[in-house]
Each structure stands twice: as C-alpha cells, then as structure tokens.
Amino acid sequence: MSLILRRFLCQRQQRGSRALEGRQDADRVVVRHVCTGPARPASRPPSISLGLLGEGCDHPAMAIRSHDGKLYEITSGYSIPDDAWQYELVGLTGPPGTGPYLCVSIPDATPDGPFTPKPAEHIVVHAGGGIVPWPILKELMHLLDSGGDLVDELRDLSPAATALPLTLNTWSHNDRRFEINHFHYSDAESWCCELYEVDPATTENNYIDVRVPDASPESGPFVPMPAEHVTLTMHGCWALPWPVFRRFLTAVGQAI
C-alpha cells in the first residue's frame, strides 16, 4: 500500500491511501495502520530512499481522540523530506483543512543512520491555525514528554520562571523576541493569554492564545471554568521555537 510521508509546514500534503482498523472505546477511538507492504520495525526507522515509501508503514503511533463532539488525530512518524521526527495534531471534524493543525518537528542529528534527536533548542513548532481543546493539547504534550525525544531540554522550573508573566513581558530566544500579554477578553467572555513575536520586518499576524472561559461573565469577578473548557487558538501560520512554546504553555498551565 502506498503511504506518503507528509511534510509538516503548516499545510498538509494529500494523504496516501491507508487501510485502517479501529475500535470505539467510550471517549476514545484507537486506530492502527494495516501495512500491506513488507513490515518495517515498530521503532523509529532509519533514513530510507523515496523509492521505498510504498514498501511499508512509517506511522508507528496514531490515535483519534474525541472532545466535545469533535475528533482529533494525533500521529507520530518520521518525515524523510525534513529529516525529522514529527508529532502532529490535526482536527478531523468539518471539511478538510478547516480543523486545527499543530506539528512539533524534532530534527534528526544522524539522517543517514538511526534517528538521533537534536537538542530541544532546535525543535520547531508549526502552528497552522485553528482551535485545540486544552485536554487534547495536554495529551500531545504527554506523548512528547514520554517519547524520549526531548533531549538536553534546559528548562527553568523555578516559580519565577513558570509563573504567568506580567502583561507585555518580553522573552528572547537566540535573535528573536516574543511578547506575552494577558487580559480579559470581553467579546469571548474569557481570560486571554497570548504569545506573539516582535518582528518589525513582517506584517503577518501570526500568534497563539489560550482562552479560559469566565464561569460568571455577567456579574462579579472573573471565575475560571475547569480546564476541559480551556482552548488554544492558533492564528495564521507560524513557526516558533519549542522552548518558547513550552514555556508559554507551562506558565499558562500553572495559572489554570
């Protein structure tokens, strides 16, 4: 069966045909590929030539999750065009291309041999638009944390570093600058925490925000609703460094 490994640069290439077997489990649908070509090992594959793409299955991890009546696909696989191991979250509900898209791309330090992840500072997050429920996002983050691919991740977990920063606080990563802002968003009846890049060279409106709905928007002080109602909204098509994305989610997670 022909299977095309997809390049994750904010838009998906057309998927190859796949035979799927699945079973429904309460809130979860577990799906696995049925490879009709010669079997490939379940562990991360070595770099292979494009001529071998039709010979087996290169998606050892795949699951479909349900939240609030919508379906989300989480996959993990090796992208040969990018020489990277990639974790992808895609919304399946609605017309193709209208759901959320998020990909974490981990570069391969040895593309001519077994997969060896580069240090976490080289990881890139591709945010391609849409809304992701917080519980679904947490599952993707758990998959990343448990996959063993986040090597040499230098995280400052002190209270000062993980606390939600003051509004319009600036973070730096290499030669890039980012700002974090949080405020009450009355139109959405939510508390909004947003992250965007300070880049005078571009006019693109790329940013992400986390919205915490207000349980009592009509009266009284802000009362956050439970985490299952929280969402990550991605605007535009943005490639941002993993350390910045991770720090932002950690700070927001501490506050909700």
How far is the N terminus from the C terminus? 45 Å
Q: What structural class do helix, strand and pairing data support? A: mainly beta
Number of helices: 3
The helix-strand sequence is EEEEEEEEHHEEEEEEH
Uncertain segments are: 1-60
The global form is globular
Overall pLDDT level: 77
Radius of gyration, in angstroms, nearest whole number: 19 Å
What proportion strand?
35-45%
What count of domains describes the coordinates? 2
- Can you give the helix content as a percent range? 10-25%
How would a textbook summarize the main sheet?
8 strands, antiparallel
The count of strands amounts to: 14
In the sheet with the most strands, the strands line up as 1-2-3-4-5-6-7-14
How would you describe what is shown here?
It is a single chain. The chain has 256 residues and is mainly beta. The chain folds into 2 domains: 20-131 and 138-146, no CATH class; 159-255, no CATH class. Helices cover 12% and strands 36% of the residues. The strands form 2 sheets. The protein has an 8-stranded antiparallel β-sheet. The protein has a 6-stranded antiparallel β-sheet with strand order 8-13-12-11-10-9. It is globular, with a radius of gyration of 19 Å. Mean pLDDT is 77; it is low at 1-60.
Which key terms come to mind for this protein?
256 residues; mainly beta; 2 domains; 8-stranded antiparallel β-sheet; 6-stranded antiparallel β-sheet; 12% helix; disordered N terminus
